[in-house]
Design brief:
Blueprint (H helix, E strand, L loop, with lengths): L6 H5 L2 H5 L3 E6 L4 H16 L7 E6 L5 H10 L4 E2 L1 E4 L5 E4 L5 E5 L5 E6 L5 H18 L3 H14 L4 H14 L16 H13 L27 H23 L6 H19 L20 H28 L7 H8 L9 H19 L10 E2 L7 E2 H25 L6 H19 L8 H22 L2
Parallel strand pairs: 1-2
Antiparallel strand pairs: 1-4, 3-6, 4-5, 6-7, 8-9
Helix pairs in contact: 5-6, 5-7, 6-7, 8-15, 8-16, 9-15, 9-16, 10-13, 10-14, 10-15, 11-12, 11-13, 11-14
Length: 472
């Protein structure tokens, strides 16, 4: 049998003395899925020595002790997997795919509830135990050990695509391949976003030392011809052109927009989403998994949390509340929704991968929520709260929740002494200007195709010029 340690032994630092990573199991004997997973781990232990490489800790989410609560508070957030691998400092190096997920709820975060029962078998859990060990060694700078385990996973080539893909990343990283940047993610919401991303990639190739040098290419139109003498001023011209376009579209659309209150709420949410993304321009991937503050999540884990909140928790709850009133047959459970949007865990790899996934989840949810009518905002629903909460509040929360994490990201980046380049800050401003156009034209993109095409043409021209300037 597995000799499970308890939370007391964890807080007595016995795991550190063992020299092994922690296998954390947040268990409830009230849930059949947890009992099934418990039995499956025992089967693996009787057939294989892989669990000997772990310091196993089991805590209870049903009537937890005080130390159980401490661990749960540090490792269960929104739809968090109940099996995790921890480093010696208590931070996470792996979250298991396929296992049940729980959410820590209530004022004061004093209890959890089960979001789904997972879809797992012995082979998948064994494979996740292997990639958990590989990631532990990888994130703790034991590259050779991590690579050895990763190669074994690749050789097996089983049905665990999650483990296989992460094993490939570990091997490629050992060989010295560079990770991509955030701007390599698939931000393909529209022709506008594609053109802006290309512009920013070229802008970031320009050294800070030359942003005030004389501009040798075309002047701006109209009064801008007097303010086109360097890259710095050109960057703010592009920003202002985006804002002017957004304002013109908003003024034209405003009389025709039917659900203005809903639009304002969704616009605020989308602007904050782009603002959150823009903070990662220039951030190296090596910073994604650093635990800069004790008991605080890494940058990657914060982003995963935001994806889960939008795509599989709060967003889904809002949709189901509306469906309950209008189309009960459209109500879907957490597991079904997860299958549609894709399971997300804090996997290693390029920022581009995780932001590509986030983009697809966010844009899909934005489109789905845009059908909410103003007269539906007062509909109330009861989720984990003791009292029913309005749809308006839940929609508002999507926006301010991202502001919450923007503050967290900036604090973490400051703790890691990250200093963006000047061209990164220019890029952030332009990216946020793009969001204004996206919000003003939301639902009316086809009607304002000419206006948007015009600014895309200007952006593409400047992107070409920025590239030429960077090569001078």
């Amino acid at each position: 049998m597995i000799r499970w340690n308890n939370s007391d032994s964890f807080y007595n630092n016995e795991h550190q003395k063992s020299g092994k990573p922690v296998l954390l199991f947040i268990h409830s004997d009230q849930l059949s899925c947890c009992n099934e997973l418990d039995s499956l781990l025992e089967n693996i232990n009787s057939q294989d020595c892989i669990l000997d490489h772990y310091f196993p800790v089991k805590v209870s989410s049903f009537n937890p002790s005080e130390n159980d609560k401490k661990i749960i508070n540090n490792h269960i957030f929104v739809a968090s997997p109940i099996l995790q691998v921890l480093n010696h400092d208590g931070s996470r190096s792996h979250e298991f795919s396929y296992v049940p997920r729980q959410t820590r709820h209530s004022k004061g975060y004093s209890y959890t509830h089960n979001e789904n029962e997972g879809v797992f078998n012995q082979d998948l859990i064994h494979s996740q135990l292997e990639i958990g060990l590989a990631k532990y060694h990888f994130l703790n700078k034991n590259q050779d050990k991590a690579s050895d385990i990763a190669k074994k996973i690749i050789t097996k080539n089983n049905n665990d695509h999650n483990a296989y893909n992460q094993a490939k990343i570990i091997i490629e990283k050992k060989q010295g391949n560079e990770y991509s940047s955030f701007l390599d993610s698939e931000i393909n919401y529209s022709e506008l976003s594609i053109s802006v991303v290309r512009l920013l990639k070229n802008l970031r190739k320009i050294e800070d030392s030359v942003v005030m040098k004389e501009w040798p290419y075309t002047d701006g139109d109209g009064d801008w011809k007097w303010y086109t003498d360097c890259v710095r001023e050109l960057s703010f011209q592009i920003y202002q052109e985006l804002i002017t376009t957004a304002n013109n579209i908003e003024l034209a659309v405003e009389p025709r927009r039917k659900n203005k209150k809903t639009h304002f709420i969704l616009s605020n949410w989308h602007k904050n989403y782009r603002k959150l993304q823009s903070d990662f321009i220039g951030v190296p991937d090596e910073m994604l998994d650093v635990i800069a503050l004790k008991h605080e999540r890494s940058l990657r884990e914060n982003i995963v949390h935001c994806i889960l909140c939008e795509g599989s928790a709060h967003g889904l709850q809002i949709l189901n509340t509306i469906h309950e009133k209008n189309n009960p047959e459209c109500i879907i459970d957490f597991e079904t929704h997860q299958a549609q949007v894709g399971e997300v865990t804090a996997d290693i790899g390029p920022a581009a991968d995780i932001f590509s996934h986030y983009e697809s989840v966010h844009i899909k949810m934005l489109n789905q929520l845009s059908y909410i009518k103003d007269n539906e905002l007062d509909i109330k629903s009861k989720w984990w709260e003791p009292e029913a909460v309005s749809i308006k509040f839940r929609l508002d929360r999507l926006g301010w929740h991202l502001q919450d994490h923007i503050c967290t990201h900036r604090k973490l980046l400051a703790e890691m002494n990250f200093k963006p380049k000047l061209v990164d800050t220019f890029s952030q401003i332009i990216f946020e200007g793009m969001a204004q156009v996206e919000c003003s034209s939301l639902g009316f993109e086809k009607q304002f195709k000419n206006e948007i095409s015009s600014i895309i043409s200007m952006i593409n021209k400047r992107a070409d010029e920025f590239l030429k300037f960077s090569r001078r």
